[in-house]
Amino acid sequence: MATAQVSLPLPVLPEGWSAPNDFKAIGTLSTPNQRNLEPVGPHFLAHARRKRHKRTFSEDERIQAQESVKKVEDEDADDISEPEDPLMLGREAKDWKGQDHYAVLGLSKHRYRATDSQIKRAHRKKVLRHHPDKRAATGSSEDDSFFKCIQKAFEVLTDPVKRRQFDSVDENANVDPPSKKAASKSPSAFYKLWGPVFESEARFSKTQPVPKLGNDKSSKEEVEDFYNFWFNFDSWRSFEYQDEDVPDDTENRDQKRHVERKNNNARKKKKSEDIARLRQLVDDCLAGDERIKKFKKEARAGKDKKRLEREAEEKRVVEEAKKAREEKERLMKEREEAEKAEKFEGKKAKEVAKNAAKKNKRVLKASVKDANYLLPQGQEVGAKRVDEVLGDVEAVTAKLDNEELAALAGKLTGLKLAEEVGAVWKKEVQRLEEEGKLKTGATKTLGS
Predict the structure, then answer these.
(1) Could you report the per-residue pLDDT of 207-233, keeping only the tens digit for each?
(2) Could you tell me which of 111, 219, 221, 116 has the C-alpha nearest to residue 166?
(3) Choosing a second label site near 142 at 20 to 30 A (CA), which of 82, 337, 385, 447?
(4) pLDDT above 70 covers what percent of the chain?
């Protein structure tokens, strides 16, 4: 931290001063303490920033200026932000009339749609970046040619008359008409490609709003209104912006009148060429419009209605006969396939039922086996007991159909205790005996 020393003379003592003789101490001084004083506020922050980054005053001011410009640019980096063309940055200020004013201000994608607010914001952004003082502070070139181009662009675009004249000749805002091949790629391609063309041309119309191209659902009246409007298009477009500069001196009046006549003739020629261009554009669109072909076809269909109805009736009779024949063949084929499927399904169902019955019988046999052949757990089971129980199981299952087998297997599933399994078997044997399907006492191990 920098320090400064200031030398000031002591004040003159008054006459009669006798402090050294009359002084009486009433206390003692405290022990001195050393304290560091530091700057505060914005100056302290600036000092700390310079100290931290080891900058001089001039370096710090230059970097702060760059950051300030960047901050403003970031704040406006929205719909008016676009990269700058190096060729545009090198333009001479005297060639301002040939420059693209919207591109100079970064409004290329807005152009005639740009609002006054957008133009002012774009101008402010460009000035902050390219002002000679700012460029000097950031160490850039002090050439102010592009800055003058910015000022001229702002002057033109903020003057309604001058801006209208420039918009009249702004070719960059035009949309090129599509080729015949591109417009005929798909039904929607025609409207997608030609629509923006007429929306661009509509900016020159004295009558607003301008009819839209529409789509394939547009009515005949809407289509006719669209083409009638464009064939009788009333344009405000002028070409004063491209006039040759008229001399300001009053001495050479003949030269001034000559230039004015030359400009008037040039405007008329360009106006005629523009009308012819627009007429050709409408003709090209009309030639590729499938709706016009559809409307003409409908008109011809009205004239040939009887012939078309007769042809349609003949076609209907032929198609109905063909459909009847195809329907008959289809029904026969379906019937044959249904019979085959029925046979196959019947065979398949029998096979499934047979397999299910086998599975259920295995479940029934397994139930008595798991229940220790209906003897208490731990008691030894002899071969005779096994034969008797399995014989009774087969005797019972022989009297059951597939559904009854499945039902009985479901009841026995999950049972392990001999008492539970025996109860289920006993109940099933009683049912069969009551229904007369099984003789009483036919089963010794499963019955009562």
Answers:
(1) 999 999 999 899 999 999 999 999 999
(2) 111
(3) 82
(4) 90
Kind plus residue range of the DSSP H or E element containing 338: helix 305-370
pLDDT band of residue 1 (cuts 50, 70, 90) is: very low
Structure tokens of 413? 């599933």
Alpha carbon separation from 150 to 138, 165, 183, 221, 252 (Å, rounded): 19, 18, 40, 48, 33
Q: Is the peptide bond before 209 cis (omega within 30 degrees of 0)?
A: yes
CA dist list (Å): 252 to 244, 248, 262, 402? 16, 9, 16, 124
CA–CA gap between residue 92 and residue 243 (Å, rounded): 20
**367 closest CA partner among 309, 431, 301, 416:** 416
Report the distance separating Cα 46 and Cα 224, nearest Å.
72
d(CA 309, CA 301): 10
132 neighbors 142 (Cβ within 8 angstroms): yes
295, pLDDT greater than 60? yes
pLDDT at 250 over 60: no
pLDDT of 237 over the 80 cut: yes
- Beta-carbon contacts of 377 under 8 Å, excluding residues fewer than 6 positions away, are 417, 418
Give residue for tokens 């839209």. 212
Look up residue 279 and give its amino acid: R
Position 68 pLDDT exceeds 80:
no
User: Distances from the Cα of 403 to the Cαs of 2, 220, 407, 425, 438, in angstroms?
Assistant: 108, 72, 6, 16, 17
Straight-line distance from the first to the last Cα atom of the chain, in angstroms, rounded to the nearest whole number: 115
Q: Which residues pair with 235 in a beta bridge?
A: 205
Residue type, 270: K
Q: How far apart are CA 125 and CA 106, in angstroms?
A: 9
Residue 253: CB atoms within 10 Å: 10
Q: Using alpha carbons, select from 127, 170, 169 the residue that is nearest to residue 150.
A: 127
For residue 446, give the H/E element and its range.
none
Mean pLDDT, the chain, integer: 82
Within 10 A of 396 (CB to CB), how many other CB atoms are there?
Answer: 23
Q: Give the DSSP per-residue string, 132-154.
A: HHHHHHTT-----HHHHHHHHHH
